[in-house]
Every structure is written in C-alpha cells, then in structure tokens.
Amino acid sequence: MGLSSLSSLSFFKSLRANNRQFAVIGLGRFGRAVCMTLHHLGYEVLGVDMDERRVNRILNDELVSHALTLDSTDPTALKEAGLYEFDTVIVSIGNFVQESVITVLNLKEGGVPHVVAKASSDIHGKLLKRVGADHIVYPEHEMGCELARSLTRPGLLERFELDPDNSIVEVVVPAEFDGKTIADLDLRKRYGLNLLAVCKEGTFEINPSPVTRLQKGWLMVVIGSNKCIDRLPV
Fold this sequence. Notes:
Elements: H1 9-12, E1 21-25, H2 29-40, E2 44-49, H3 52-60, E3 66-69, H4 75-80, E4 88-91, H5 97-109, E5 114-118, H6 122-130, E6 135-137, H7 139-152, E7 156-163, E8 166-172, H8 182-185, H9 187-191, E9 194-200, E10 203-206, E11 219-225, H10 226-229
Parallel strand pairs: 1-2, 1-4, 2-3, 4-5, 5-6
Antiparallel strand pairs: 7-8, 8-11, 9-10, 9-11
C-alpha cells in the first residue's frame, strides 16, 4: 500500500516533525510502505525484521538507510542494536499480536519517547495502548472505510480526518456547482464549509478569489464537519 495521498496524513501527523531518524520494526507490506515514504521524504530509516529475506530485500531495494535482522521481543537485542536511542519507532507487526505487544512494551520500558504501532483489531489496539503505545494506526480499517467512501461517493477523492468529527476533503466540483462563482455558492452559509483551494489542470490555487468561476471536473479542497461534508452533492 502507498502512503503518499492526503488520507495518509492521519498517519504521518503522528510522527514528530523535528525528528530526522526513524526505526520501523516489521517489514511486511505496511512496514515497507512506511520505510519507502519516509526514505523518499529524506529521513534516515532503520528497518528491522526477524526475517532475513525481508531485511535483504529492503536493503537491495534501497528503501532504508540501514536494516537489521533481530528478534524485537528480546529487549537485550533491541538495546544492543541501538533501538532505544531512537526518538520515534514504528511497530508494524500487525498480524502477530503477542510479538507486537511485547515489542511495544520493550521499547517503552527502554525509554523510547514515541512509539507508533499498527493494530489488526480493536482488542489488539487496546493491548498496545495498555503497554504504552503513543499512537495506534488501523490501516486495514482505514483502507476499508476509504474503499466504501470511494464506491458510494466517487466524487470525494481524499479525506484527512482532523478528529472523529471534522475533516479536510478533496472533491470533484459537482455538476450543480458548474459555472457558479465561489461567492455565488457561499459554501460557509449553505453547507457550513470553508473552501481552502481549487485545482485546475493540476495546479492548486490557495484561498481562491470569490469571483473565481468553478467548472465541472475541477477539484476543490474544503474543511468542515463530516456531517456538513456529507451534504455536498458529490
């Protein structure tokens, strides 16, 4: 899975912006995607996995700065490998609950200040929280929700959830808005939404002029409550 879209920001906002080094434990599909994106953004990334084949593969693909084969349930191995010195560690062992929980516990007891962990279920997430995980992500759940939205509301392209009730969304300008100016639409009064930007021919215009006349097929980025967003004719 990729992590470059607007919806992925809910994951990346959990990472500390002033940190230049990250460790990712678990190099399955999700872990590889996290490594790849952080690496491409210019961060130093240490990849860790028990499976030597996964470690060799991610090194050969040049998706990390360094990679190690070790058992993250062994606190001594984590300490000797320097994992406790990292400011942020992402634990993506989502399908192995016991190993995931023990790894998070080890990291927190070892003094890692910020641990992000992937959970495969609500119970898994509660266990991770109980042992000290600072942020829990549910990629399968989030992808399922995104798929359902894309099937039922194809005009809504991306969503960044600010919290459970409010979001920033990217939507295709609907036919009902075609030819109308931003002032004509008065999105704040009619829908309770604020327009942040419009995009035409691949170029975004931030805080567009009220006299800008929208065209069907353009994109617009709005912010507001989920209830208000759901009222948009897209």
